[in-house]
Amino acid sequence: MSRAHLLRDRPVARQVLLLQVGSVLLLVVIGILLASYDARKDAHSRAAQRAVDVAETVADSPTVRSALRGGDPTAVLQPWTEEVRRDTATDFVVVMGLDRTRYTHTDPAQIGRKFVGDLGGAPQGHVFTQQYTGTLGPSVRAVVPVKDGGRVVALVSVGIRVSNINRGLRRDVTAIALAGGAVLLVGLSGAWLLGRRLHRVTHGLGERELARMYEYHSAVLHSVREGLLLLDGDGRVQLVNDEARRLLDLPDDVLGTPVEDLGLAPGLVAAARGSTAEADDLYLAGERILVVSSAPARWDGRDVGAVVTLRDHTELRAVTGELEVVRRLTESLRSQNHESANRLHTVVSLIEMGRTGDAVEFATEELQLAQLLTDRVVGAVDDPVVAALLLGKTAEAAERGVELRIEGTLPPHEGIAPRDLVTVLGNLVDNALDALADTPTRRIDVRLSGDATAVRIEVGDSGAGLDDEDAGRVLDRGWTTKAAPGAGRGLGLALVAQVARSHGGDVAVGRSTLGGAAFTVTLRPGAVS
């Protein structure tokens, strides 16, 4: 395996640590080299300036001019310049004539000999500096003129050996190296701490593993047929797949948006933000019925957000509603079969008792009542499915001791499917039956009306009714007045509102003439959305 593959197999945290260590080392070394170069340059510059200052001071001294006028300048200047050299920590102070003859020198043997080195513009009255190797070795020196009455009469050269300059430079470089080492230690410590945190965040995975996980993760998320929504601890959307975007009609820039700002139903938002796991609950999202499961997401014992899965249940719910109608009709037929058996036994017993007249009268009366109910329902509703539903609801109400009255007629409309009418009537009547569970007076009035532009269905009961606050929330998914809400509770009236909206209508909540709640649904066949 190549070194490149071995490097990619290392954890990302270790790769970052090595990169940071190399970067810190490189930066510190470069910094030390640059600082050392700058310190060397400054040391030579300071030495040259110090030599110029000392030379100018000596050249301006009255002692020098007075000695030069005398017959033996060396006798006066040699001890004096040596004292100046020691006091100023320089390596030589040479006073010379314009012909380069030395009057003074650190080495007395050099007195009287010619000065070695360039003079530059000093004989013309200028200051001259250079680095030159003379009798004492390499040195940084300055040559300045001695003027008497405005005329150059001699020269002064002051020098500092390079070895002495470098001795001080080594002290400076040592301090720079110590500071660089401290910076390197701090940098390496920071890199190590950052590497530890990165190792913890990436769970010790290498770059190829992370890339593979991301590729698989993205492929799975966008290929599954369930909608998936991931929220962080603040309820902001951090991940959403294609199916969730479709089911919830989410915009492309949804990431980072609080779930409360997505325009979802309050019940669905509450389920997504819930702190406990919920499985397979039904919610409305626009015109869709969704099966929603949510669970808090935890890592290392701490909450990191929530995971919400969504499945489209619209068509299945519609079919289930029709099956529910069939089930209720079956129960109604079973109940009627039971009642018919009782009546038949009564008729047979009356005949056996020889009371045939009473038997005929009893049978005829029951048939008339049953036929009258059937005629009234069929006359009110032309659609056989809706008529069957109302007959079943009437039988169910009778079993539960509730009087169900049907008034008015429902005109036929091709723009309204029987399934929608079953949804509206079935859920409204069921809701009214539940509302009468604990009331002494039990009655439900169903009023049907309509014309060419609209169909109206009103269901009122004699229950306790709804106050203003409850009336404003009763159409929300998940809202219920029942004592034990659970999966599917609070969905019926929300489905009614959904059907009304899909046909350009609405649902009005008020108080019925019986004293309980009244729901009036208006459907407009020509305004199907």
UniProtKB/TrEMBL annotation:
It comes from the Bacteria. Gene3D superfamilies: Histidine kinase-like ATPase, C-terminal domain, PAS domain. It holds the Pfam family HATPase_c. Its main location: membrane. Its EC number is 2.7.13.3. It catalyses: ATP + protein L-histidine = ADP + protein N-phospho-L-histidine. It is an enzyme of class 2 (transferase). PROSITE patterns: HIS_KIN. Residues 307-527 form the Histidine kinase domain. GO terms for molecular function: ATP binding. It is a multi-pass membrane protein. Keywords: ATP-binding, Cell membrane, Kinase, Membrane, Nucleotide-binding, Phosphoprotein, Transferase, Transmembrane, Transmembrane helix, Two-component regulatory system. The chain crosses the membrane at residues 16-37, 173-194. The keyword tRNA processing does not apply. This is histidine kinase. It comes from Nocardioides ginsengisoli.
